Fold each of these.
Amino acid sequence: MLTNQNFKKITDYIWEISKSFRKDMKVPGRIYAAESMLESIEDEAIGQVINVATLPGIVNYSLAMPDIHVGYGFVVGGVAAMEYPKGIISPGGVGYDISCGIRILKSNFIQKEIQPQLDRIAMEIQKEIPSGLGKGRKTKFSITEINKILEGGAKYLFKNGYGEKEDLENCESNGYLSEANASYVSDQAKQRGRDQVGTLGSGNHFCEVQKVDEIFDTEVAKIFGLFRDQIVIMVHCGSRGLGHQVATDYIRLMMSAMQKYGISLPDRELACTPFNSDEGQKYFKAMCAAANYAWANRQMITHYIRKAWEKIFKNEKLTLLYDVSHNIAKVEKYNGKKLIVHRKGATRAFGPGRPEIPEKYRKVGQPVLIPGSMGTASYVLVGTKQAEKETFGSTCHGSGRIMSRKRAKKTFWGSTLRAQLEKQGIIIRCESNAGLSEEAPGAYKNVEDVVEVVHQAGISKKVARLKPLVVIKGE
């Protein structure tokens, strides 16, 4: 049984579980948290951090961010890097919503200039973008087109008139991974994805109109193009049913293949194979394809948000600040050495100078986009060199659940929550009160506490806080 006494205090914000805690651990586990947060972390989540520390080829630490909570196999908020190319790759280290992520669009308006139009903005965006479980667009892409999206991502959509060149420049990996191979994505996954490009989905996915509420770093904010009271739009979504199917297909494949490679695990949900194995390469290339689909999805949503925006504001433009994933596995270099970095509910947070960062941000570091729970603040942070040294360039991805959706439904009334948010001046567009109750702020950790941990720990630094004015969600 793990108690607080098993944690070694490294700093005020880093707590370590020694690899001697269990004889099958290959590396220590490290959790980023304030001391006051430790007792609220589920035992099962800590157990998952320990289990990940047993994986073949793991390097340095099994890491967890302060938004830690129980996930499938890996903890949500988990980061693990494996030796390249002989270490493993695990679908549980990416998650079911492959390349779920955040993008922020910037306007030139301040709040008072568009306050009278907020209700119409909400209505027009909701009309343009289907949202909710299984919701799709009326027009379906052909399988041939889906294959091109899977291999070309946002770049393919840009070439076909959806967006601007700057959208690709301001997107992680320029909106596509070249390693993608659509032939490794099942027909079932492709069918599920045919009508879902440009849709929000359900759960904690949303589109929010927000204002810049506070600036913490004026120099970085200026480079990011952010200013006080500015109106921005945040989008949170991923690869929808297609990504879920890819994860399902390859978890099943890897569960049956592990014995062949002599891999023994404390939890079958960690199913994995060597990265350079046939199964490992197929999953990696299919995962890259699903990531491309997610970037294309957010790019298409951007197109329809701009369409709604221009109905109201004519020639006023929305520009992309950045787009970053928080469920992905990538081959990245640290100190000249390639590693297979799994981020599951964790955001890339590269510091200044990395060539992967858009040139205009390279002097200060990568924009890091952290959504709050519905009705609370969200944050723009900036990546750091310290993150590259300690966490393989990773930080938190949100506030982190403390309550299951099922329990949240029983605890919070959607109608009461709707009234409370509207009393705060927040316009809510969600057809289902049940959908609201699942995502109640009380079902999540305090995003302020989570962000303060990563800021004080130095693995990403606060730039700006954003407050919601309009929340658009699916059921």
Amino acid sequence: MTIPEFSERIQSTSLQNEDGVSLIDVITAIGEEKRTIFGFAIFFTLIGLIVSLSLPNVFTAKTTFLPPQQNQSGAASALASLGGLAGLAGGSLGIKSPDELYVAFLQSDTLQNNLIQQFKLQSLYEKKTLGDTRKVLKANVKTIADKKSGIVSIEVDDSSPILAAQIANAYVEELRKLLDRLAVTDAQQRRVFFEKLIAKTKDALALAELESKKAQETSGVVSLDAQTAAAIKASAELRAQIALREVQIRAMSSYATSQNADVQRLVAELAGLRAELEKLEHGTGQDKGSDKSVGALANLRAFREVKYQEAVLDTLVKQYELARVEEAKEGPLIQQVDVAVPPEKKSKPNRSIIVIMAMFGGLMIGLIVAFMRRRLKMAITDPALAENIRIMFEAWGLRKKNI
């Protein structure tokens, strides 16, 4: 078979598609425009090489830490008390997992502002505002929470490997400081809660002691008899226990219903304590009796208020110490698993990938230009194709339509 016969057979086969473009036309177009195609490929390859060489080396330092492990946080307890609605409530509130809470802390403006000030990143990144500096810092830092292991990782990119490692470790330290200021775990929340109550009770006790001193000076009675003092002390202790139960019930009402077993237990204890207090006060006949003067009654009430505040303070201090013990049992809030070290190798840019992508991009553009040039050449001898090209130019406004 001769070459002309072979060429004629190829053109008569299915190599020709519906648009009349055959494989021979494609190969011919590539051969005729090979200089254009390879020229574009070489040009874009050189551009990719120049761009890749101009990009600075970026190093990635990584640190990992283990967040506090606790049974349930306040929000989790609240969701658990909802039963079947927990999933719906959790989704509406945006609460997905405890680890994501610490990722949100890491991305907070307060923490990032401290890092910017510590490492003088605003001048290093050459940004005028603090907000723009935070945007650059967020772009250079990636935080990932592994839901299976519970470990949170921090990856920091920077042109300096030493600075990247320092910033990564500083993230963990700043998170520790933030958690020290915020009450995150249950034990922390109880400790902070009792700290506030103790401070208020101390102020109330100081005021009660001042009023008691004034009442003693007014009535002239310096001390009470032993039986009355003992009854008042017992009454004050009962009142303190009642106040503690009331506080606990109010605190639990934010996440538990009245059907909760712990709430019902506290309500029963509260009723028993109130009954015992009523019995004690009626049995001793406090604040009653015609033989007592107004000054003596005022002294008695002031003394009872002092004993009551002392009993409340004593109870709150015990609860505060228990909360501190539980907080100590939880261990350190943040346990750093891997300390970030300066990386030895750069993580990006991948210069070979940039050059290869630029080369393929140049080839594609070269092929498009080659086929467009071939079509324009064919339009000179093909009136139908020339008409189609004219319509295309008119559609894009490159040539005025004929009127």
Amino acid sequence: MKADAGLAPLERRLGYRFKNRDVILTALTHSSPAADRVTYQRQEFLGDRVLGLVIAEMLLAAYPAAPEGDLSRLLAELVRKEACADVAKAVDLGSALRFANGRTPRASLLTTNVLGDACEAVIAAIYEDGGIDAARDFIAAHWRERLSTAALPGRNPKAALQEWAQAQGLDVPSYTIAAKSGPDHEPRFDVEVRVASLAPARGEGKTRREAEQAAAAVLLGREGVWGARS
């Protein structure tokens, strides 16, 4: 395995320092290099199982009364490739991936599937190097908010927040667009919700309504309204 120079910035972004650098170097090696090099495919397999286990634990703790079917649907949403790719982007995993030398532009190689697979491989590397607790810490740090905004079937975060605010004698929640990014055909909305003197909460989505729902779910989770019950 080649020298591990340059891993320190990635370790800071991951929030974990590896004792055995070989495991993270393997996790960063895409299957496109020559066949004689070990790639992340086996770690991807393991990381997918570790992620599923930890998310299942988090869901059981957050929704102690939810039926198995609802938990399964939430689990599938939280461990899907797109969610893993988003986490990979958040820690800029793409800049550390190792591809075979070629003429293909690097940016075009960083697809959702590649980033999602690499994220799972990194989870496996953390698990192999530091055990399940280290993997739990990483997953919790990057999936906690996702879990709080993932509503159980039949739940409407905005309606639930308004009902809760009224029950507490608080003003009706107000929503404002904090930021909008992305091209016109694929925008991203960042919405902030405020309820009386409570600290505001923010959520993102592909539409303003989706971002408002996410922001409402974040506030409900932070205030303990959601998560302690199904």
